[in-house]
Every structure is written in C-alpha cells, then in structure tokens.
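One thing: can you check what follows?
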Amino acid sequence: MEKYYPPFKITNEMLSLVASIMEKIGKVDSFNNLDKLPILRKQNRIKSIHSSCAIEANSLSFDQVQDVINGINVVGPQKDIIEVQNAIEAYKEIENINPFDEEELKRIHFIFGKNVVKNPGKYRSGNEGVSDENGNIVFVAPQPNLVPIHMSNLFSWIKKEFKTVNPLILSSVFHYEFVFIHPFSDGNGRTVRFWQNAILGKWKPIFYWLPIENKIQQYQEDYYKAISMSHLNGESTAFIVFMLKMIDQTFSDLLSDAFDYENSTSIYIKKLLESLKPYIWYTSNDILKALGLKSKEALRKNYLGPAIKKELIILEFPDKPTSKNQRYKLVR
C-alpha cells in the first residue's frame, strides 16, 4: 500500500510567515500568559463562535452571541440560536479533546450539528460538490465510500508528523484536506476551523483562545479563493499561505489588544485577578483575606467595582448585587 502524504510545497513565503508568527507568540508570552487577561479570553471566544457561525450564514450578531453565552434570551431564527448554543458547547470542549482521535472529531461534529443538520457525527452517504454562481459544477468531493479511508489516512498523517512538520503548516494542511474530503453532509466548515485550533492548541495553548475564525470571516472571499486555487493546483500550498497570513494577523490583533488591556487596567484590578483562582466562587470576606485588606469599602471601590464594570468578575446573583449572600468569580 502506497504511503499517504498530502501534497504541498514549503515556500520561502511560508517560512517567513512562520518566523513572524513565532516571534509574536514570544511577545504574547511576555504578558504573563493569557490567564492574566480573562476579558481577552472571553472576548476572543465570542469572536471565534460568532465568526465561525457567521461564515456559514448564521444571522446572529456579535452582541446576540454574547447574550446567548451569558444566558440572556435573544430574538432570532431558532436554527441560528441552536447553532450558536451548539458552538458554545463545542468550544467548551476544545482544551480537553485529543485532536488526533478521529472518533473525537465525529463527537465534536455531533455537538455542532445536533438538531440543525442531518446525521450529526456521521460521515456522509451521498455525493457532494460545489457549484459556481451560474450553477456549473466546479468541484466534486470524493465518493462517500472513500471518505472513511481518506479521513483515516489524514488522521494517521497528522499523528505521525505532528513533531516533524511545523504545526502551523500541518494544521493548515489538515484544514485544506478536510475541506477537500468534505466528510460530513453539512457543518464541515465550522468543524474544521475548530479542529485546526485544537491541533494548534495541543502545540501552544494560546491557540485555544486565538480567534482565527474572526480573521477568516474578514477575508471570507479570499478564504474560498485559496481553497479553489488549491483544488485547481492539486495541492494545499496556496491555502497554507493564506492560513498563515490569517494566523499572523490574528496575533498582531491580540498583541494590540493585550497592550491596550495592560495599559488601561489599574494595579488594583491586576492584584485582584492574580489573587483569585478560576472557577471558584468567593465571598467578599474571602477576597478581603486573599488581598490582605480590612476595609470592605476599599474592596468595593478600588477592586470589585471596577473589575465588575470591566466584566472581569461576575456576580452569582446579578439581580441582587447587594445581597448578603453575594459571591464573586473570575470570568473565564
């Protein structure tokens, strides 16, 4: 049996982009890692979910997606709301999945597609193709009986080559090959964009929170052009270059946002965030003890109030902010 190796070329442009991305990853590390910037993590996650759904014609706005995440009822098409709810559930899994496990991919597709697509989590049984604006067939995906073979080969390749092919390139190759195979009848786009982040996150955890999907949405026409060019050339080189550009630009945006955050956040808020652990509810007395303070007024005025206003701290009982049973938790 011939050894499977997806066709692509390493170019000087790719190498230059990889070097630029690596340099920016180093700069991001200087911000004491993203765990100290919870508001950026939250906003980036909303960007990822909104953009990946919007690329697939979901009509909900960024603010509506944020409301769905926060448990606020929104008015919109029920299918679009379910799609966003499904995406929220899927992205909660991203740090825990094994990106080299094909069954995990099917499970994530099921989460994305439940109640909105046929046969979520199962490979397609019918033929698929892409037509141009005139209805002419411009691309025909592999026959359905070949999908399991192609997907098995693709997963075997990324598992074997993860430590030898730079993950920035490897994950982009996976992205294109997945699009080419078109393994599911629907929901392929949002699944593969999620999966590329999962592969990259296994390499550098910063990618779990990097909204590459947002940049793809901004250059959506170029995204499809890069896919078409790779189809035409019979290799993923053009698509890899496109994805590296998107990742590089996303890091530029992240560095700018992180710089603004660092320079607009008071020393009191920074001390508060560094003193609390994620996922834990704290009473005001707990926080006073953690900060070494005695005055509840100083806690409210300098620490909790400004942090709540910046949406860095959430209340357990937001409708009763002065409740004697009130507790506080880091946004994550």
